[in-house]
Design goal:
This protein is of the alpha/beta class. It folds into three domains: about 120 residues, Sandwich (Jelly Rolls); about 80 residues; about 400 residues, TIM Barrel (Alpha-Beta Barrel). The chain is about 25% helix and about 25% strand. The chain has an eight-stranded parallel beta barrel. Strands 1-2-9-4-7 form a five-stranded antiparallel sheet. Strands 3-8-5-6 form a four-stranded antiparallel sheet. The longest helix has 29 residues. The chain is globular, with a radius of gyration of 35 Å.
Length: about 725
């Protein structure tokens, strides 16, 4: 009973509460006072603006990726690409362009993370990739997302890039173990500041174009007047020539001036046949300057009061030398590149029968304006410079060893771009240098010219063959592979071949005019790679064109005894089978490449009277850096390397225009091995390879015994078959 009563009461209470909720309330709700008339227009909430959907550039997964592993994933609606570099030549592609307008969308932007600095190369594919249509960029390591903007307007303009079907290849680095993430890659229009930078660069390009045109006009001009001789003595410089008409003036052109400058400070009137003598030295911006380095020309005032050349400029004809040293000649064609003097290498000088070597010299690594302590002082043109004693003593050992063995030394003069910021570095590195391993010397300021001259004067005086106390330098190889200037003799990526050669000839002349004051047989030499008429590098410069310009400068401005330091590596440095793989090395003076395969091209060029010193004396020709590669240490690959060397040495010894070869590298350098290069005569552990035995036998009674087994490797029956006698 009790349980039913409780249930009944509960039901009543629930029902009452339900009914109460359904009835209208009798309680009046207070109405707030109206303070303003309400807006009768219904209030519709504003919709949120739609989120902008960006159109990002995607990685092309259909194209080959090299030395790289790849993952992609979508994070918050954005694709992220992750790369792990597994080798020394990693690269990948972005999808081909479609409907892009690179003339407007001229800035490449992206975000990235990387565990290492990225020394990257971007290939603007049209549609294929080539060195000539690429640029190098360096990006710092970053553990968080870092935004980057790369203007591509001028790359598109220069490379003809930006049409449908074109693409971008990215080589993020040149080593394994690098990890990289990329996202939000796109082309966009430049902002105001970027547009200002593009406009500024366009003006600079216009100025460079005008300068390039002026240099071209100078080289191609015929002048009615001339400077016939420039004679130098210890006290003065005598300039002789012939002028006609009124208003002709003789001007001095210093190394820090272009021959195309519109105004020259040093001048004096001349007429008819004239002979003018000036003091040997002059004060220039606080320096005592040696006028042996100047050019001299005739000008007239043109429109607007500017100077107009009416003659070619002319350098000193003969450099006076106080030494009566005898000429030291190469006694055999066999040499060695990159001598650094360890015990095994020094013994190889004897065991291989080496008669000449190259030695790298980087003077701005050890040259100072202010005494750093423990130094050697050197005076040049009234100023005192300082040389780090420990550095120069290391060079003394190398040069002395060679001197004692009767070995001719060619010093390769390299201006270290990344040297510690010593007092002279800012002076001697070309101000437009923007990358690469080494720089062009600075010929834009008096300080640059004088400091560079002081370095060379120190080396020439200390290592004069006339003395030999500290050893000798006989030849001076000026810088390295100037046809690949951006990489090896950088004076700025905007420099044209004309501009580069103009500065390069200045460097050659300055060294020649200093070195010959201490050794009258010193040769300066132009360093060029195996490109001949077709470039495989970003500069677009070629060896044959550069040589033709140097010959032209020499004939116009008074010849000097320069030579050629050529690097006729195989077409691909990795491929030793030159007989079948060097398809672009042909028996033509217009061959794309000059390699070991077609050395006859170099031989014919150097023996042509038009290319000789004063039209009659053959210029020195050294193959100063070259070698064949062993793809591995397997017997077959070692035999290929040795066969390529036998081919090369047969040609070197038979071709009369070639004075010698310096095999490079002496041993398999670990850094080069990591890139697939084993071009040494010895391996990394310094054990000899078959190529060492070939090199030793070259030019000796054992040559046939050692060489002939490699005829089968090449696929010929006689060594006579490798020569093109009809060329």
């Amino acid at each position: 009973m009790k349980r039913n009563t409780i249930l009944y009461i509960s039901q009543v209470l629930v029902t009452s509460l339900f009914l109460a909720c359904q009835k209208p309330s009798n309680t009046e709700t207070p109405v707030p006072p109206v303070t303003e008339k309400p807006d009768p227009t219904p209030q519709v909430p504003s919709p949120e603006p739609p989120k902008e959907t960006e159109k990002y550039w995607k990685v092309d997964v259909s194209k080959r990726m090299n030395d790289i592993s790849f993952e992609e994933k979508e994070v918050d609606g954005i694709m992220e690409y992750s790369f792990n570099c597994t080798g020394v030549d990693p690269y990948f592609y972005f999808e081909t362009l479609k409907g892009a307008d690179v003339s407007k969308e001229s800035v490449l932007t992206f975000e990235y993370q990387s565990n290492s600095e990225l020394a990257s190369q971007l290939f603007f594919c049209t549609p294929g990739a080539s060195e000539a249509k690429s640029t190098r960029k360096t990006f710092p390591a970053s553990s968080s997302w870092k935004s980057v903007a790369v203007p591509v307007y001028f790359y598109a303009l220069d490379f003809g890039w930006g049409s449908d079907g074109h693409s971008l290849r990215v080589d993020p680095c040149s080593k394994s173990g690098v990890t990289l993430k990329i996202r939000k890659v796109k082309l966009r229009e430049p902002n105001a500041s970027e547009k200002a930078v593009i406009d500024k660069e366009q003006k600079e390009r216009d100025a460079l174009k005008n300068r390039d045109a002026a240099l071209t006009a100078y080289l191609n001009s015929s002048y009615s007047m001339s400077i016939s001789s420039v004679a130098v003595t210890a006290e003065g410089v005598t300039i002789a020539g012939a002028a006609s008409g009124d208003g002709v003036e003789l001007v001095e052109i210093t190394p820090w001036q272009d021959v195309t400058d519109a105004s020259f400070a040093e001048r004096q009137p001349v007429s008819g046949s004239f002979s003018v003598t000036v003091a040997r030295t002059a004060e220039k911006d606080g320096y005592r300057y040696d006028r042996v380095q100047s050019r001299w020309a005739l000008v007239k005032k043109g429109e607007g009061g500017t100077d107009k050349l009416v003659s070619a400029a002319r350098y000193a004809d003969v450099i006076p030398c106080a030494s009566a040293a005898r000429e030291v000649k190469i006694r055999d064609k066999k040499g060695l590149g990159g001598y650094f003097g360890n015990d095994v290498q020094t013994q190889d000088l004897t065991d291989l029968g080496i008669s000449h070597v190259t030695i790298n010299v980087t003077p701005n690594n050890f040259f100072f304006k202010n005494d750093p302590g423990n130094s050697i002082s050197h005076e040049y043109c009234g100023k005192t410079y300082y040389v780090r004693k420990s550095s120069i003593e290391s060079y003394d050992k190398l040069f002395t060893t060679c001197h004692e063995k009767g070995i001719v030394v060619s010093a390769i003069i390299l201006i270290q771009r990344t040297a510690a910021d010593y007092a002279v570095r800012a002076d001697v590195v070309h101000p437009d240098c923007d990358g690469g391993n080494y720089a062009m010397p600075n010929f834009t300021t008096v300080a640059g010219v004088q400091t560079y001259g002081a370095m060379l004067d120190f080396l020439a005086s200390r290592y004069s063959p006339a003395d030999g106390t500290h050893g000798s330098i006989h030849n001076w190889i000026m810088h390295n592979e100037v046809d690949a200037a951006n990489e090896w003799t950088n004076m700025g990526s905007k420099a044209t071949e004309n501009m580069m050669v103009h500065e390069y000839v200045k460097s050659m002349r300055l060294c020649h005019n200093i070195a010959r004051q201490y050794y009258p047989y010193a040769h300066v030499m132009a360093s060029l790679a195996h490109t001949w008429t077709k470039s495989d590098n970003a500069t677009g410069f070629t060896s044959k064109s550069i040589l033709e310009k140097i010959v032209k400068y020499s004939s116009m401005e008074g010849d000097f005894e320069w030579g050629l330091a050529a690097h006729p590596y195989p077409q691909s440095l990795l491929e030793p089978r030159i007989w079948s793989k060097d398809t672009r090395a042909t028996y033509s003076m217009n061959s794309d490449f000059v390699t070991f395969k077609n050395l006859e091209v170099l031989d014919k060029w150097i023996l042509a009277p038009a290319n000789m010193y004063n039209g009659s004396v053959k210029r020195l020709l050294l193959l100063s850096e070259n070698g064949t590669n062993a793809k591995s240490y397997d017997d077959a690959d070692l035999a290929d390397q040795a066969a390529g060397a036998a081919w090369a040495m047969k040609k070197v010894y038979r071709l009369q225009g070639i004075d010698g070869i310096d095999w490079h590298n002496w041993y398999d350098h670990p850094d080069e091995v990591a890139q697939g290069l084993r071009i040494g005569l010895r391996n990394s552990a310094l054990a000899t390879k078959p190529v060492w035995t070939v090199y030793q036998a070259a030019g000796t009674a054992k040559e046939s015994e050692v060489f002939d087994p490699y005829l089968n490797v090449i696929g010929i029956s006689s060594w006579d078959e490798i020569f093109n006698t009809a060329f």
